[in-house]
């Protein structure tokens, strides 16, 4: 059973790869165990594509966090091939098992100008600079006059940089490992290279092709270096995985790191992976924090949008409000036009009265001038006449009498003028008061909405003061006050009083209905409170029933365990004592089945009770919601 659990805990296992070595790196703390053999398959896989990168070159001698494709090489082996006792496992397939190049690549020709001297100089300089940067001691003279051993050292150095796990055996012939290595690394022009060229590496007809091989390896190493420094998701580096990620490669990187840690723990004879589980759970919890915050923000925005939508759906449409306001404004504009027309007519009447008064003043000035001329003429006539003393005395007496009469008349005229002035002032004040009263009356009509047009009978209740008329009956223009205006206003007042009484009665009725609805709401709330108490009691009963079922289940489990122990003991006693204990064993098995059935029956009863309680709660909530909807509809209808 322990072996089966250990096999199931392996992250990679399969019958087809049982005889292959594990591609998962073994930790330094793991010891060799005879009973812990890896069932994982080979780690052979195609190299990752190298995305373009503009990052500056970093050292490729850097750990890639357990990524076997990017394991760094050791600086102790720079410039020389590994020893014979060093055996490395390559992620690439071996030369004997290499899949042949496709047929389309067999006919592909090298498009590079490898035979041109400028291009060769460029290749040599790039190879020399790259090798110097990585500590390989070569010179330009060696590249200009290349030897077989120098070419092999550079070739194996570049292959080891490109694939640190590729098996390089210095005891084998260079001709036997050269072409398979190129095909394994995917050199596209390996078909055009002959192994016989390695005998004379620096010859003019072979050196361009072999130099092109070295230049291609250098370019691939540079591409690998840029790819390693790009922090791309396909690097499968857990350190590069952001807190919030959606890329499948990021998930694979975390999964691979988790499998590796679990595998290392499993090799130490530990079957519980608590630390890797906690690390992985914490990592995904960090990933979910941003999503949860976004969900909370979206939920708040959704609630605000729902509240705004409810406000918009329950309130009246803005168009209807604007239409009502527009109607009010149009009615006010019509009333204002009527008022303006009245004020215009009044202004015209005052202008006519002022013009009439000015004409009368001109006539009176002309009359006064005429009287003055007549008096002068009379004075001249008196001077020209020669009268006797008696006539003069008589005329003097008459003159004095006439003078006194004239003074009396003047006094009377002055008194009359004073009276007229006082009467004019009084008249003016009364006219002003009357105009103010009429203005207040017209404003009151406008406020009460009694300006024309009125509903039938169409009666014009407006009044205007005509001060130019001498007839008292014609001082007020418009409808007759006694016969038309006063009866109409009385009828309107009576109708308004009746309407007010009806509105007051309706208000009292609505208040009574609201009080009744309030009492009903209080009653319903009391019922809801009682039902909630009942629901709480039912929930407590369900919890108690669930706890009792759990206790019974635990007791039944303990009884079953004891029965299993007794069965095991009985089986041991039966083996020791013979067939005499079979009946006891059957009895214990029957008791065990009964206990199991009892446990299952209690579980089913608990589940049914919980489901029944949940359904009762749901039905109660539905009934409460239905009552509330009915109450709301009733309130809206009222």
Automatic annotation (TrEMBL):
Q: Which domain of life is it from?
A: Eukaryota
- Where does the record say this protein resides? Chromosome, Centromere, Kinetochore; Nucleus
Mostly located where?
A: nucleus
Q: Which UniProt keywords apply?
A: Cell cycle, Cell division, Centromere, Chromosome, Coiled coil, Kinetochore, Mitosis, Nucleus
**UniProt-annotated stretches for the region Disordered:** 1-119
List compositional bias (Basic and acidic residues) regions by residue number: 109-119
Boundaries of every Kinetochore protein Ndc80 CH domain copy: 96-226
What segments bear the compositional bias annotation Polar residues? 55-88
- Coiled-coil annotation reads 364-426, 500-548
Q: Where is the composition biased (Low complexity)?
A: 94-108
Does Cell cycle count among this protein's keywords? yes
State what this protein does: Acts as a component of the essential kinetochore-associated NDC80 complex, which is required for chromosome segregation and spindle checkpoint activity.
* Quaternary assembly: Component of the NDC80 complex.
Query: Of which family is this protein a member?
Result: Belongs to the NDC80/HEC1 family.
Which protein is depicted?
Kinetochore protein NDC80
List the top taxonomic levels of the source.
Answer: Eukaryota, Fungi, Dikarya, Basidiomycota, Agaricomycotina
């Amino acid at each position: 059973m322990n072996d089966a659990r250990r096999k199931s805990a392996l992250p990679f296992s399969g019958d087809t790869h049982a005889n292959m070595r594990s591609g998962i790196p073994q930790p330094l703390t793991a010891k060799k165990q005879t009973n812990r053999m890896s069932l994982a398959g080979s780690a052979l896989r195609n190299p990752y594509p190298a995305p373009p990168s503009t990052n500056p070159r970093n050292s490729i001698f850097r750990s890639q966090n357990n990524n076997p494709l990017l394991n760094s090489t050791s600086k102790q082996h720079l410039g020389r091939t590994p020893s014979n006792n060093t055996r490395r496992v390559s992620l690439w397939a071996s030369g004997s098992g290499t899949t042949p190049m496709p047929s389309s690549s067999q006919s592909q020709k090298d498009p590079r100008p490898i035979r041109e001297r400028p291009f060769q100089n460029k290749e040599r300089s790039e190879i020399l600079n790259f090798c110097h940067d990585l500590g390989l001691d070569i010179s330009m003279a060696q590249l200009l006059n290349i030897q077989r051993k120098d070419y092999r050292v550079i070739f194996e150095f570049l292959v080891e940089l490109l694939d640190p796990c590729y098996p390089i055996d210095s005891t084998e012939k260079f001709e036997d490992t050269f072409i398979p290595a190129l095909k394994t690394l995917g050199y596209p022009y390996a078909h055009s290279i002959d192994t016989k060229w390695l005998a004379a590496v620096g010859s003019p007809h072979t050196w361009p092709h072999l130099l092109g091989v070295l230049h291609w390896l250098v370019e691939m190493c540079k591409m690998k270096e840029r790819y390693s420094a790009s922090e791309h998701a396909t690097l499968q580096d857990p350190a590069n995985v952001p807190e919030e990620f959606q890329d499948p490669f990021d998930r694979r990187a975390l999964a691979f790191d988790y499998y590796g840690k679990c595998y290392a723990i499993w090799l130490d004879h530990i079957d519980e992976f608590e630390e890797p589980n906690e690390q992985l759970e914490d990592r995904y919890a960090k990933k979910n924090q941003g999503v949860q915050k976004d969900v909370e923000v979206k939920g708040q925005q959704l609630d605000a949008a729902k509240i705004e939508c409810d406000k918009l759906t329950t309130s009246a449409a803005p168009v209807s409000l604007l239409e009502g306001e527009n109607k009010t404004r149009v009615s006010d504009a019509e009333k204002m036009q009527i008022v303006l027309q009245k004020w215009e007519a009044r202004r015209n009447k005052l202008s006519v009265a002022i013009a009439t008064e000015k004409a009368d003043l001109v006539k009176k000035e002309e009359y006064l001038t005429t009287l003055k001329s007549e008096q002068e003429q009379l004075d001249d006539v008196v001077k020209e006449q020669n009268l006797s003393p008696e006539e003069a005395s008589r005329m003097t007496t008459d003159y004095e009498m006439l003078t006194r009469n004239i003074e009396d008349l003047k006094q009377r005229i002055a008194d009359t003028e004073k009276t007229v002035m006082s009467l004019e002032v009084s008249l003016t004040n009364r006219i002003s008061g009357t105009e103010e009263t009429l203005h207040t009356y017209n404003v009151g009509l406008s406020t009460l909405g009694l300006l024309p047009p009125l509903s039938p009978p169409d009666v014009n209740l407006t009044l205007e003061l005509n001060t130019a008329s001498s007839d008292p009956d014609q001082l007020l223009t418009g409808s007759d006050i006694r016969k038309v205006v006063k009866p109409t206003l009385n009828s309107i007042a009576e109708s308004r009083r009746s309407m007010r009484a009806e509105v007051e009665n309706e208000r009292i009725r609505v208040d009574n209905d609201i009080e009744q609805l309030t009492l009903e709401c209080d009653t319903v709330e009391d019922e809801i409170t009682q039902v909630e108490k009942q629901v709480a009691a039912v929930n407590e009963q369900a919890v108690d029933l669930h706890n009792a079922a759990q206790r019974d289940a635990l007791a039944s489990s303990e009884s079953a365990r004891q029965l299993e122990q007794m069965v095991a003991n009985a089986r041991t006693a039966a083996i020791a004592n013979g067939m005499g204990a079979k009946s006891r064993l059957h009895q214990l098995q029957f008791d065990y089945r009964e206990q199991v059935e009892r446990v299952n029956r209690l579980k089913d009863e608990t589940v049914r009770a919980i489901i029944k309680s949940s359904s009762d709660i749901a039905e109660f909530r539905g009934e409460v919601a239905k009552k509330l909807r009915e109450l709301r509809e009733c309130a809206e209808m009222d």
